[in-house]
Write a structure and sequence with these properties.
This protein is of the alpha/beta class and 441 residues long. It has 4 domains: 59 residues, OB fold (Dihydrolipoamide Acetyltransferase, E2P) (Beta Barrel), CATH 2.40.50; 151 residues, Rossmann fold; 71 residues, Ubiquitin-like (UB roll) (Roll), CATH 3.10.20; 104 residues, 3-Layer(aba) Sandwich (Rossmann fold), CATH 3.40.50. It has 11 helices and 23 strands. A 5-stranded mixed sheet has the order 11-8-9-10-23, with helices on both faces. It is globular and about 70 Å long. Bound molecules: iron/sulfur cluster. Iron/sulfur cluster binds next to helix 10. Iron/sulfur cluster (SF4) binds next to helix 10.
């Protein structure tokens, strides 16, 4: 095992403050950094010695022998369940990274816990595998969060295509009348928080609103399993489930790894999946839509869901390119990165008109996954002399782009094409599934 690099910022909020120094011995579960404001405790994920404390990370040299045991969270005997969740340093492990102890510290007055099991990014499957293998643990987490936040009901939002996981859940929920299942269509994005609220509760929230405005909390599958571990086992949050996929010697099927120590390098996980198979395009940390290019040395964090090795990019030989940015796909910086790797020249940038800019500069979609029409943007690209366009849109909008772009002689790439081709997934062009399944079971 190589060095473990534990980043001091793995959550929404300020970076944590280190409380260890070089030379300190640490165990799995030793508290090594604490929040200075909004944030979550950070623990060592291995037995070892602190090598170096840097401004943004703590580097630990792991012992050769690693035990399964861990140091439990340090809470009083009579600590509440909420205090245990807070002490365990759990954050939204679906990628958002919001501290869970803050999110669930509310009174829903009989409202809803919505379990985000959409696992919307194509290629990732660790959430679904966790439901297949550990449904009981996830359901225990649901019940604890319902108790803490005074929710009356819970709904699993899961794509209908995951037949095995749905079957396991149905069986496990036989005697749980307050917890039901809502089946989602296989389109992107279904896992966006407000899309989950809309699909499960029929309430459309505008982009400035949180699910709390619909008397609900949306919470990811793995996060709930970590809540159950914190309460049942007093286990700190120091490991992560993730999927490694792509151009790998181990094959392009998803390689799912559970309980990987936070701070493990991307390269080490790729080696576990067989190593890179020949020449490649880029390595992405995260999903095909929202992930960013990364390096073999980069460490995984509490929010890392995917590591993707892609095939090479096509070469546009400097041709003019228009970029169409979506709130739920790559941001402009990422789209420019993809364009540069395709050897294109950006001549125009447009934004889906439903992508609203929030106060913090981030984009949020007004109605995730429901297209407002894209012909106007295509006209702009044409006017700006683009030959190609690279789009980052949701399933529905990609479909609409294709309604007008080819007629205007604009050649279309999707930001995810190189990933989809690598993993043998249909390209985001034409929507072939019905938009809604809309089914409660
Ligand atoms: S409607 Fe527009 S902003 Fe919203 S998800 Fe689709 S492409 Fe993105």
């Amino acid at each position: 095992m190589g060095s473990i690099q534990i980043l001091l910022r793995q959550h929404v909020g300020a970076p944590c403050e280190p409380i260890v120094k070089a030379g300190d011995n640490v165990e799995k579960g030793t508290l090594i950094a604490t929040p200075t404001g909004l944030g979550a405790n950070i623990f060592s994920s291995v037995y070892g010695v602190v090598e170096e404390v840097k401004e943004d990370r703590i580097i630990i040299k792991p012992d050769e022998e690693q035990k399964e045991t861990f140091v439990p969270i340090n809470v009083p005997e009579d600590a509440s369940k909420l205090d245990m969740v807070k002490a365990a340093g759990i954050v939204g492990m679906g990628g958002a990274g919001f501290p869970t102890g803050v999110k669930i510290d509310t009174d829903l007055q009989g409202g809803y816990i919505l379990i985000n099991a959409a696992e919307c990014e194509p290629g990732l499957r660790h959430n679904i595998q966790q439901i297949e293998e550990e449904a009981d643990k996830v359901i225990r987490g649901v019940k604890y969060v319902m108790e803490i936040s005074n929710a009356g009901k819970a709904i699993f939002a899961i794509k209908k295509k995951n037949g095995k996981a749905v079957k396991v859940l149905k069986e496990a929920l036989k005697n749980e009348p307050a917890i039901s299942i809502h089946l989602l269509a296989d389109i992107y994005p279904m896992g966006e928080e407000r899309a989950v609220v809309r699909e499960c509760l029929g309430i459309e929230l505008d982009p400035t609103k949180l699910p709390l405005a619909a008397n609900s909390i949306v919470i990811n599958v793995e996060t709930l399993a970590r809540v159950a571990e914190a309460i049942d086992e007093k286990k700190p949050c120091f490991s992560k489930n993730l999927t490694v996929i792509g151009k790998l010697n181990g094959g392009n099927e998803p390689h799912v790894y559970m309980d990987v120590p936070v701070g493990t390098s991307v390269g080490e996980l790729i080696e576990r999946a067989g190593g890179i198979d020949g020449v490649y395009g880029e390595i992405i940390m995260g999903g095909p839509f929202t992930g960013k290019a990364t390096t073999l040395e980069a460490p995984i964090t509490k929010t890392t869901g995917g590591i993707i090795v892609t095939m090479e990019f096509p070469d546009l030989h400097g041709a003019n390119v228009g970029l169409l940015v979506c709130a739920c796909g790559g941001d402009e910086e990422r789209m420019r990165d993809v364009c540069q790797k395709m050897n294109g020249t950006v001549v125009s940038v447009a934004r889906c008109k439903q992508a609203m800019e929030m106060k913090n500069g981030a984009l949020k979609c007004e109605r995730p996954g429901i297209c407002p029409g894209q012909a106007k943007n295509n006209l702009q690209f044409k006017k700006d002399k683009a030959e190609y366009i690279i789009i980052g849109n949701c399933s529905d909008c990609s479909n609409t782009v294709m309604g007008s772009a080819p007629k205007m002689k604009l050649k279309v790439f999707h930001q995810t094409d190189h990933v989809m081709r690598t993993i043998g997934h249909p390209l985001y062009r034409y929507l072939k599934v019905s938009k809604t399944v809309d089914q409660d079971i």
